[in-house]
Amino acid sequence: MAKLFLLLGLAAVTMAVPYDSYFPPKYEKTPLGESIDRSTMKLLKAAYDVADDKNVVSSPLGLMMLLALFNSGAGPETKEEIIKFLGGTDFKQTSESYEELSNRFASLNPEALTVANKIYVSNQFKLQDSFTRAADKYRSEVDTLDFSKADAAAAIINKWADEKTHGNIKEPVDASMLSPDVAAALFNVIYFKGHWHVPFKAANTMDKDFHASDGNVVKKPTMHLERSLYYAESPELKARLVELPYKEQGFRMVVVLPDEVDGLPAVLEKAATSGLLSDVFKLRPAGAQVHLDLPKFDIKSKLDFNVILPKIGVSKLFNEAATGIVNAPVKVSKAFQEAFIKVDEEGAEAGAFTGAIAVPTSLIINPIPPIQFNVDRPFLYLIVYEDKILFAGTNTK
């Protein structure tokens, strides 16, 4: 049986610049957003559990989009597993949801968000007509590649990844991964670059204590901000949440801080069961200044989905023949993701803060004490577009 190769390369780059005003839009939960939420947290927990390095970043959404596309040509048992993982009711409904999402992302400013699918087909095979139509609906590029020339094929793939991630992921594919029996390779890239609405000032960044997951206390460059932010407390999660909006409309980062120093595994356990979106939608203006201390971080991850996917109930794609991809039965031989995220205060010194989130103050006689939000322990973070989680990760050291 011929091989099929899945690669997901993605990048999240966050920066900070001044802004004039911020009036947060009213987001609405959708069935697709809720299913993405639940699947994201299941996958993140599985990735965290198997990782030696508990600093994990991933875009489960990139995997979901690629699995939804793959499902157009998958075998019946694989289809059932993928639909269940994606939280859909049937193949048609699931496919239409992700096709629509692909087109929605394509309409956004590419300087903020790039979502790209690429299919390389071996010159020894031909895509099935039905899969070609599906690829078109997912706005996937299709090219032919000679996988028998592994070095040259890897160079072509890596050039595409390098261009789509703006030079941040240069060589995700090694020639040793490829072989003449590869019939096709499906790739996805999600690249995000955002600018803070609420600026951090580099002059306020100081080394502060961080209680790492291994029990050690380390010094980390920590940014500081004092503003009225969206904030929530979750007794169910035993955690608090704060939102940092981006200048790019619809995008925001949510930081989930466990109440206990060693509380991250328990938060992940609960989130994997019920998701986080309900807690995210409880975020409201704090009604007081939030004194936020947030470590700068730069995390890179390589996730082996051959190991992770079976742990969340998706395994048939590695052994069941998919007859609807090319003109021969294929199975997935390798699925992985390379990801990174950078969070810093770059650009925040360029100007002054001249706007704020409006909160009711007419009945306030005495100042409300500030809310201390000191991210000094392992935490969870999300990058969200409206109600769709683009990136999720953990920072533990």
UniProtKB/TrEMBL annotation:
MF terms in GO: serine-type endopeptidase inhibitor activity
InterPro entries on file: Serpin_CS, Serpin_dom, Serpin_fam, Serpin_sf, Serpin_sf_1, Serpin_sf_2
Keyword Signal: yes
Signal peptide positions on this chain: 1-16
Key words, A-Z: Protease inhibitor, Serine protease inhibitor, Signal
Serpin domain sequence ranges: 41-396
SUPFAM superfamilies the UniProt entry points to: Serpins
A Gene Ontology cellular-component term: extracellular space
Similarity-based family: Belongs to the serpin family.
Stated name of the protein: Antichymotrypsin-1-like isoform X1
Organism expressing this protein natively: Trichoplusia ni
